[in-house]
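Researcher: Good morning. I'm working through a list of sequences from a screen, and I'd like to move beyond sequence-only analysis. For each chain I'm collecting a predicted structure so we can compare shapes side by side. This is the next one on the list. No need for commentary yet; just the structure.
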Amino acid sequence: MERVSDLLCQRATPTTVSGLFGGMTLFRVPAYQRAYEWTDEQIDAFIDDVRRCWQKRINGERERHFFGSVVTAPRDPGGLVRPRRDVIDGQQRFATFLLFVAALRQHCLLAAAEFGADDAQRGTALSTMAETLQFRFIMSRDLDFMEARDVYPLTLNETDDAYFKALLRGDHVEEVAQSHYLLKAAFDACFAMLQGHREATGSTALEFNALNQFYASALEDWEVVHIEANAPEHASLIFRVLNNRGLPVSDCDLLRATTMERAEQRLEPAERDELSDAWKEIGGIAENPDTYLQLAYQTRTGKRFNTARTSTEFEAMHFEELSSGDLLGAAEARSLLQSVQTLKTDMVMMKALTGGDIAGGGLQLTPVMAHRLAFTLGDLKQHWILPLVCASRSLNADHRERLLCVLERFAFRYGVLARARIAEYDRRMGPIITLLNTSPADYRLPEVEAILTDLLDRYATREAMERQLDGLEYERHKKELKYILAMSEFMSAWYDGQANGRPTVHAPNVPIDIRAMTLEHISPQNPEEAGAEMLPHLHKLGNLTLLSQDENDRAGNRPFVDKKPVLQGSRLSINQNIAEEDKWGAEQAIARQDALRDQAMRVFDLTF
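Model: Good morning. Structure tokens for this chain:
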């Protein structure tokens, strides 16, 4: 018989995150592990999980959230009585959870102080909750060679640990590494989420209940499987196997299996074949069809797709026919077949739109708007706007065109230049998507513009945009520069006519194929030809323009005087304006940079 010490894994224990950190064991991230690296995408998903579990409790229910498995290895406890273990897999999740708990603790203390004598009982309860969070998750006391000292349940690597623990305590410390900024961003996002829920309550009783449910959820709802390896080398092997063996089961795989199983006995053979064929087509849309499943879900519901697949609501959130959990009748099975076919159609259109195929995505737009949106989706990869784009199909042609003109310009400023928080946009736009799906007659463009303007004012300010425009360079930002120059051409007549009202394309049926256009340097790239004064401006917006491939071939890398005939003969007004210059140097490039920046600031402004 094998001894326990001969096995890779001593035990695998299901528990809660609270139970893991509330026990005797202390966890440490080994020095060789990576620093903290979760970005907005992972943090937003984590916050959505927190909010979902909290909302269940607010509604008098409960949802257990599976936090995944964590792999640890034994470590010498040193002078402490408590056992220690190295975290081989799970440090990003652990650190983020503790940052959320630290933010929750701070809000409990803030609310307790604000309640004061007016609501002493709830204030005292909040203080007790803060103490419990402090002791269980953040810091306690223990003996080390007969001396009492602070003990933290999780220690990160040398780069992050001091900064991480300062965040947990609520101390201010300067960031000195990129991972510090990411840790701070994670804490700030959690703090802001909690602040928003507190401010939305309107009374001390509701505020207390909100914080209390976050507290209860943190202690009880987050579950993990703790895999305890017998040695560090065993832990590394387990980690590699868990992350590298086999093919992951996709959301589409799970939905296919459930729908086929639930509907099979109630469908005729031909209908079963239709259901199977629909799933085959869905599976062949892309290497990872889940991307389009998630976009289709958000288009239909207005909600971000982030429900754990272990949730009992997973199938029902996609197919209403599966919500009861009961056996399906023949009518329900046929309805489910129709729902799967509708999902397939939606996902196929989503795939078309992500590649810039506007007509294939079911949208009828003017040629100029179609080319602009195709470039935004297919080349600039701003797929996060797709749910609202698709929901706009419920509007008539004129209203759809106006909405997409606003949305596409917002996407460039918010998503391309500022790289701002998409989750915040999703939350604010969710009700608009729902409105378009259920009551499009009640839709009003000014309401959308007000929401988008507020997002720009908070996350993509005018001052930041000016810096971002001036920072664009030829080698790193070709697509962004092409888009700005194309927009300058499209909006030139409106802008030159005093730019009144919303930006308007005066010739909506005369498009520019932005993808087919090339970026051309007005002053040539050859440093000897350009001159020393021109070098700082050579690759900036002010010295670039758009030419067709044929025009580019004729212009070549020649001096400005040789390019003037090509520019004069261009159908683009931005090129004809350049050709009016007698010469081209640093002075002209700087002036054009300023002019294009000023024009862009007006074009991409949503206030009128």
